[in-house]
Every structure is written in structure tokens, then in C-alpha cells.
Amino acid sequence: MWDRHPVSLSLIHMLPDVAARRGLALPPLLARAGIARDIAPDRTVARAQVATVLLEMARHAGEAEIGLDLAAAADPSRLGLMGHALFSGRTLRECLHAQAAHMPTFQRGVSLALDERDGRAHWRHVLADSDPEHARVLNEGIAGFVVRALRAIAGDAGGAIHVGLPHRALAPMRTYEDKLGSDVSFASGAGVAVSFDAAWLDRPNPFFARNRLSPEIAALPLPGRGFLIDDAGLIEALRLIIAAAALSGTLSLPDAARSLGLPPRSLQRRLASLGTSFEMLVDEWRREAARRHLADPALSVGSITRLLGYRDPAHFVRAFRRWEGEAPVAYRKVLLARNGN
């Protein structure tokens, strides 16, 4: 599955604060998905890129369930028309319908459904073309955000809510239940499913009179129906991904393609049309990085080998001879002498 559906970067507006509280540097996490340092609300990226950033954050924080904490830190007013629409109806039912109507202003490729059976309301949110395991942190964030909104609008801090998630549980069940305040099941079908007492649907919305849309929010652009990174943006995104992935040993075209929501063959063809390839981009980045690192006498050749994503120093030495016509040690000796070291 290749999730290239466009999404506003305002979706992850809470990342800087959540990352800072955990002592995580955000730029390397963004780079892993080919996203530059800033999270501007008027920028659009492929949803697969957002899913990649969230997975990287969960991995670096050592918190599989971090999506639920991101949901708790989310500010609906920073989610554009969709965020305001969710609190715009006279009742919870109207709020959910308004959210569905305005979702295309926030992201594409989303199916939202609400139905009632046997006294229960069933709300489902499905991301088209999305791999459940790749999007697991994103889906958990969606679930946490919706449960929080339901309780805020319906005015019931208790009540029996059940959340179904499409992926495997990667943290203890008790952790999910405590953070969501609901029963939870996993691998329960497509997308996120939330069920609750159908009587909640017609409860009045306490935010109705207070929810007014600012002109700035109303003026935000609508994401296009398809998201395609332009040629310059594609090369820059891949360079960011290569630099971020080298140390973790995940320098591969399939991995980079997945981060961008592209089929590997499509990425190969696009790069070929630009007169390059993934392997050439990796080689160029390694050559530039090797020169830079060799100028630092504190870094051993073994350390530089690992920084460049090589498993064996011999592979680095062989590549460097191809680039510069001499071994790294000899190159460094001349370079340091030239610089007076």
C-alpha cells in the first residue's frame, strides 16, 4: 500500500512540545520522512510521511503508545476547518457530520461513517491505501483525539466507549485502556472504530455558541486531490531521508519509498527520468559526508564508517578510493596538514 494522500502538516502541530518533554530532537525525526525542519500549517505532505515521523518518534521515545499522548496534546483549533467543524454542530451528531464534510480540507483519502445499531453508535475512520502497521501511531492518535472530543461534546467523563484499532498491540492492554479510558480491541477490521451509547448523539454541544471560525483559518488552502512531490522536492526529501537513515542501517530504496508513500518502482522511474538513481544519491551523500567527517581529527575511520551506514570499514575504504583515488587515512593526512593541524 502506498499512501500518497495529501495531509496538512498541522496534523502534527503538537510534535515540538511532546518531543521537547521527552528530550527528543525533532529535526532528525522529520528528516527520516524527508520533511524539513519547520512544521508550517500551510504545508502539505504525503500521509505516509507523517506516519513515518510518528513511528520514528515512538521508536526513539521507547513508547509504542505515544500516539495517545500526542492526541492528548492536540489543539482542535490548530487543525483548520476540520478541527473547528468538529465542534460546530448543535448536537454531537451534527458535529460528527460536520467533521466528515470538512475532512477533505484537511486530508484526502479518508472514509468516515456513522451508524446506529441496537442502541449503540458506531463511528469508523478509515485511511485509504494505508498499511495498518505503518500507520499504527497515527491511528492511535486519531482514536485518542476522537474519544477525547466525544466526551468533551457529550459531557460524559464515564460511559461505555469501545475502541477498535486495525493493528497489533505493541504495549500492555492496560496502558491503552488507562490512556483512552475505554475498552480496546486490536486487529478489529479496517481503520479506527469507536462505539458508544447512541443517546450521546443528540446531546447538545456545549461549545456551539463559542465556536467561531477565524478569517485566518477560513483562508487556509485546500490540499490537492493528489500529492506529488516536485522534482527538486523529491531530491531534497531523499537527501534528508538518506542522512537520517544511514546510522540506523536502513539505507534502501524500498524503505525510502515507503516513507514517501511511493511504490519503489515509481520512485526508480522518477529518479531515472532525472538522470540519477537512489544508489547514486546515496553515493553522493556519502562522499560529501566522508570529506566533512575526515576533517574532524576526533573521528576515527571506524566511526566514520558507521556514520556513513557501512557495516564494514573495508567497504568504506574501497568506496573512498573510488571517489578520491586514495585511502581515507592518506586523504585526512593531507587535509589536516593543509589546514595547519
TrEMBL record:
It comes from the Bacteria. Keywords: DNA-binding, Transcription, Transcription regulation. It comes from Pseudoxanthobacter soli DSM 19599. SMART domains: HTH_ARAC. It holds the Pfam family HTH_18. Coiled coil: none annotated. One of its GO terms (molecular function) is transcription cis-regulatory region binding. Residues 236-334 form the HTH araC/xylS-type domain. This is AraC-type DNA-binding protein. One of its GO terms (cellular component) is cytosol.
